[in-house]
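Need tokens for this chain, all 580 residues.
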Amino acid sequence: MKGNLLWFILLIAFIFSFIVKNIAIIGIAFLVVSVLFVVAALIGEKNKKEKDELLKIKKEKETIYNNAKQKFDDSVKHLFDTKDIIIKQLEEIDSYVDGIKYQDEIVLFDDEDDQIEAINDLQNILKNSNYSNAKNIWNILYNDSEYQYINPLAELEKKISEIDQIQMPDLSIEYEYLEIIDNSIPKPTPLRKLYDYAINAINNKIQELREKYKERGDIFNSEYQAFENKKKSHNSYIDSIKNVYFLNEKEAIESYYKSILETATYYKHFSINVVIEYNPINKVLIVEYLLPSIDDFPKIKKRQYIKTRNEFKDIYFSDRELNKIFEDTTYQIVLDIIKKVFVFDSIDQIKTVVFNGWSKSKNKATGLINEACILSVSTNKDEFLKINLPEVDPKECFKGLKGISAHNISNLTPIKPIITINQDDKRFVSAYNVEVDSSTNLASMNWEDFEHLIREIFEKEFTSTGGNVKVTQSSRDGGVDAIAFDPDPIRGGKIVIQAKRYTNVVGVSAVRDLYGTVLNEGATKGILVTTSDYGSDSYNFAKDKPITLLNGSNLLHLLEKHNYKARINIKEAREEINNL
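Here are the structure tokens for all 580 residues:
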């Protein structure tokens, strides 16, 4: 213990002695260490500040990069979102346009409420008819209707034009982004290229839709043009009537009333066919009118709500009820038409009206179509205009006018008309038969023989339906060559036939002349027959008009149908004519 203490005291004494001897060196060393420590502290502080500054700069660069990248990404996203929205809008437009109906696809269709309303209208024809528009009758006769169908292609273009267009992105966003990134980061697809891609996708979809609806657009244009041509033709026809109606021309008066009565639509499913003849000597107007078929009448009486099933049930008219409605409506139509004739007689040329009502309906006993006159009445203007039509019993009024019909007209019992349409014409000449065989060249036969041959062949054509054909006086002036009378109440009436034994193409002027003759004659149709053919102008003019063009081929087929043998050789006929 004493030994250890001694050694400790000796160690302390040694250290003290060393410090005393080396105090200057130790002081200097301490000072150096202190200076080094301070320098090290200053350097550490500087390094820390530099590190902090670098870290700050790095964070700022990251922020700038992230902001630029976010702007770029947002711009790309907006571009493609807009593209997708437009594509979706185009698909919706496609669905809408695809639902647009063709003219031929739109069918006259009645729902239950339509039929109930139609029955009410039919039962009140005389109460609802308005005769106060007699002064405006010409405006009524003109067709000023607009085409009611939609052009799918035009509608497509209209809808496309309403879509917001995709906008070019702000390219400065891309430039800002590209300036920041270094080579370690892949460069993005340029905004302009992405824009072009989006635009191409949209344009391709639009082009696809345009190609899809091009054919339907063409169909619409064709149907629209046909509608406009028909309207123009109709209005020209009314003009032609109006120009001579006030001159008291017989044919114009007939055409005038035919047009008026054809506009009298009582129910959209009723067929309309009218044949008119006017006698200017005694001022009698004969009306041959196709009455509606009971098969075309609305059948629904009312709709009854079934509470237990939460649905509606259609209640139909019984046969007895429907027959009564048919009879009452038919008599109302007869009286209404007679009233229209007298009221619309603005030149006071009608003193008497003879109305012959025809029926074309299926006989339930035989299943065959019966065509017959089922009622007839004659009345004068002074007598008829004294009647207060809205308050009469239609059947009793008809009987009071001494009208003729079966007790039940729903039985479609035929009766003899009081007066029928006159088929006499001073221009008619005696007909004779023409002998032809397989050696007969129609293109070079005598022109008068040719006209009589045409009369003969059409007489065979119309005889089966009770009609007849008469040849007019030969004039070789392009006028009427033959007139056919067809008693069919639907397709019948007066038909003008012209025969052209030509070796050249028939020009459009001949077709125009025929149309003028049809109008002047008050005919329902015109037929032009030739041994040659027609030019495209002729066919275009005849389109949408009551004109039939029969060329040489058609004529040979018609002859063959009725067991005639003949031939047409244009070249041979020309040589024969040149040798004369």
